[in-house]
Amino acid sequence: MTVLVTGAAGFIGFSVCERLLEAGVRIVGVDVLNSYYEPALKRARLARLQQFPHFSFHYLDIATTDMEAAIPASVRGEITEILHFAAQAGVRHSIEAPLAFADANVRGQVAMLEFARHLPALKHMVYASSSSVYGRNQALPFRESDRVDQPGSFYAVSKRSGELAAECYQHLYDLPLTGLRFFTVYGPWGRPDMAYYKFAKAIMSGEPVTLYEGNCLARDFTFITDVVDAICKIMQIPPTGKARLLNIGNNAPESVSRLVGLLEQSLNRTANIHLTARPEADVEYTWASIEKVQTLIDWSPRTDLPSGVDLFTRWFLEYETKVTAI
């Protein structure tokens, strides 16, 4: 088995790579290490992966690079699975820089589908979508069968476009494709642009923790280990006949205020709360129905929010101490 992982230095990509490498799987990693958040964290993740002899890395931008030219034919011929996690992230950032999302998330998705359809040994391509595609949907929990034609951000537009492109390529070329709609993934080695990480940094530094006004803001926080478990199982079960979409969430939404309280407890610090109005791009509530993925792979999340926050803060304190010391 040889697995090509795009976004290999990103949060989810890195975490899946590490799990597969520990199991002896050969990984071909691809990443451009963009500067949306500090590349030092991406380089630190990559350094861990490069300790494995069966990991190879290609520094390239999938949206602008000829993948067939960049990946040697001898390697292309052995790729059996693709895990496509490279993307431009950030709901609010998509309001400021929509063209970056069109390039990375739409053009990049099409580039990977084009690359995938010419791989002779490919059994399955799994790609990252997002809970953001549910947009302004008011029905809870979010189900894969729900309409997703009222996006709340351009990030959602770019991810839904990726799903539609996959549906088209499955129809035209019979590609085995599964899209995963991730719900607020968090944990060790996580993304500094996400709220839980920002909250932790602000609490430790005594800076204001910005929360949105109102008591209903909640997210379906999903711990990274549970997400990796799901990905590794799904990867081994390609769909037949049509493209597949699956929610990957905790099926247990928690208030953001409770998250802050757990961070305070775990970090042994008090947050300086600053309330502000919720931006239009940020939805009030997310909640994943996971019946479909449970039927497919008999998977359920095992990490509750207090346990996940504790595991994250242990890593956070160690990592941030190292960064500060440099």
What is the CATH C level class of the domain at 2-183 and 223-249 and 285-302, in words? Alpha Beta
What's the overall geometry? globular
Strand proportion, as a percent range, falls in: 15-25%
Mean pLDDT: 94
Could you give the order of strands across the largest sheet?
Answer: 3-2-1-4-5-6-11
Question: How would you summarize the topology of this molecule?
Answer:
Layout: E1 2-6, H1 11-22, E2 26-31, H2 39-49, E3 55-59, H3 67-70, H4 73-76, E4 79-84, H5 93-96, H6 98-116, E5 124-130, H7 154-173, E6 177-182, E7 185-186, H8 195-205, E8 208-212, E9 218-219, E10 222-223, H9 224-235, E11 244-248, E12 254-255, H10 256-267, E13 272-276, H11 291-297, H12 305-325
Parallel strand pairs: 1-2, 1-4, 2-3, 4-5, 5-6, 6-11, 7-10, 8-13
Antiparallel strand pairs: 9-12
Helix pairs in contact: 1-2, 1-9, 6-7, 8-10, 10-12
Task: List key phrases describing it.
326 residues; alpha/beta; Rossmann fold; two-stranded parallel ribbon; 18% strand
